Amino acid sequence: MLLGAYVDTEDLLALRAGIARAQRSRRANVAHGERVSRQRGRGMDFAEVRAYQPGDDVRTIDWRVTARRNKPHTKVFQEEKERPTLVLVDQTRQMFFGSKARLKSVAAAETGARIAWRSLANNDRVGGIVAGETGLLVHRPLRNARAVARFLHDVAKSNAALNAGVTSSFAFRDALPKVAHIARSGHRIHIITDCHSLDASDRERLLHLSRHNDVRIVFVFDELETRLPPANRYRVTDQQQTLQFHSGNGKLREAYAERFAERRKALESLCRDVKVQCSFITTTTPLDGVVG
Fold first, then answer.
1. Confidence check: pLDDT of 242 > 80
2. Which domains does the chain show, CATH number per domain?
3. Residue from 239, 236, 237, 263 nearest 247 by CA
4. Could you give the CA distance from residue 45 to residue 73 in angstroms, rounded to a whole number?
5. What tens digit of pLDDT does each residue of 73-90 get?
């Protein structure tokens, strides 16, 4: 797990080796005791069962149907269509926050890198969009490691530009039209953000994306956003304003927790409504088995 307030390009590039090892291990477990083809392809999807015909591969015979109907039947497969991957990573100022281990911006960067390397290992074309304080950095999907490295370099560059005192008029939701322009159909789209800029007003944009693509939102949050720290007096600042509060106030603690719960519930409802997958990770979530 990448730790700290910032991440650099080398950190994100180094994730590739671990993901490659995990992919090889999974393939070895699946193919244990079998001969593994050297050909790299998109894989096959089951289509139907029909009567066996001369020339059909005997390995595809469906023995259950054959026994039930007393005639040889075979499974028919069709080649899985390519689905390019597009990764949208939020590196705006709102992500520059964290109370343990690392900031949300670092967790989002690692998540995006893991998804990109995993997709490339699956022989997908991979592209990305980085939403930073100065706007968008766009990488169209390509099937090579250099393209992924360029995308991750821009993730790290945008991450390094984050500063609690920086202000910007750019909103993360402004990236959605660019996503729709690139991923017109048949893409796997991963939107990695703390969702502060996404709400019901984005319903139509997300619905448009999900009609023609497989869309997933990865909601990144910090545990301190879910509940107040232990009872004490605290002072917090964003370098522009300073606020003092006492976290021992029972009503304050309850209202604070309810606000996050409502926010999460609203996001889950929105995702169900627009048929978008949604997953949740915290700044302390180990990502090896989650997105690697």
1. yes
2. 9-22+83-282 (3.40.50), 45-78 (no CATH)
3. 236
4. 17
5. 888 765 556 789 999 999
